[in-house]
Write a structure and sequence with these properties.
There is one protein chain. This protein is α/β, with parallel strands linked by helices. The protein has a single domain, classed as P-loop containing nucleotide triphosphate hydrolases (Rossmann fold, 3-Layer(aba) Sandwich). The protein is built from six helices and six strands, in the order E-H-E-E-H-E-H-H-E-H-E-H. It has a six-stranded mixed sheet with strand order 2-3-1-4-5-6, sandwiched between helices. The protein is globular. It binds guanosine-5'-triphosphate. Pfam families: Ras. It comes from Myotis myotis (Greater mouse-eared bat). It catalyses: GTP + H2O = GDP + phosphate + H(+). Belongs to the small GTPase superfamily. Rab family.
């Protein structure tokens, strides 16, 4: 694919315990479906989706990692070049929430210090089985300086919003970095509309 095919390219990596719904979130966003009987991811999977945000083509490379401990050394190698991480837990599984500090240590150790991390509580369609309150998750994410969103891959709740808000945020960061890194040279896309700022809810 030539450079002209997109204005921005971002790498997004999903991490979190096994079974929290990472693969289902990716499949919902990239293919618009909820796969029946989704098996555990082996190692790492990769999908691409190009979205258009205020007239600009944004190519998202989405890496879906295996949550199982035995794949940890493989998945760690994908953190380094990630622009964003989607750290996922399952709102019906206390254990997946309690493991978050462990995941944050992995991020600290293996990811770039510029990485944007979003905390996602998935499976909100199973509200009657909820084990982690929204307030508790919000407090945790605030303390860790992460964005927080609750989703349902099954019902398609907030899935588009998750990826599109993240893409908006990444565009904004990319522009800011360009500004810092090359103050005297013209910005890519300078003069274009900056209305994308209004679509981004991750502030
Ligand atoms: N009710 C409900 N079930 C979900 C949702 N998302 C995923 N699941 C189910 O949760 C199970 C695990 O989903 P996966 O997407 O394979 O989980 P994963 O995090 O990718 O798991 P690993 O690949 O092992 O790391 C499957 O049985 C899915 O059908 C959701 O939003 N709601």
């Amino acid at each position: 694919m030539s450079m002209e095919d997109y204005d921005f390219l971002f790498k997004i990596v999903l991490i979190g315990n096994a079974g929290v719904g990472k693969t289902c979130l990716v499949r919902r966003f990239t293919q618009g479906l909820f796969p029946p009987g989704q098996g555990a991811t082996i190692g790492v999977d990769f999908m691409i989706k190009t979205v258009e945000i205020n007239g600009e083509k944004v190519k998202l490379q989405i890496w879906d990692t295996a949550g199982q401990e035995r794949f940890r050394s493989i998945t760690q190698s994908y953190y380094r070049s990630a622009n964003a991480l989607i750290l996922t837990y399952d709102i019906t599984c206390e254990e997946s929430f309690r493991c978050l500090p462990e995941w944050l240590r992995e991020i600290e150790q293996y990811a770039s210090n510029k990485v944007i991390t979003v905390l996602v509580g998935n499976k909100i369609d199973l509200a009657e089985r909820r084990e982690v309150s929204q307030q508790r998750a919000e407090e945790f994410s605030e303390a860790q300086d992460m964005y927080y969103l609750e989703t349902s891959a099954k019902e398609s709740d907030n899935v588009e919003k998750l990826f599109l808000d993240l893409a908006c945020r990444l565009i904004r960061e990319a522009r800011q970095n360009t500004l810092v890194n090359s103050v005297s040279s013209p910005l890519p896309g300078e003069g274009k509309s900056i209305s994308y700022l209004t679509c981004c809810n991750f502030n």
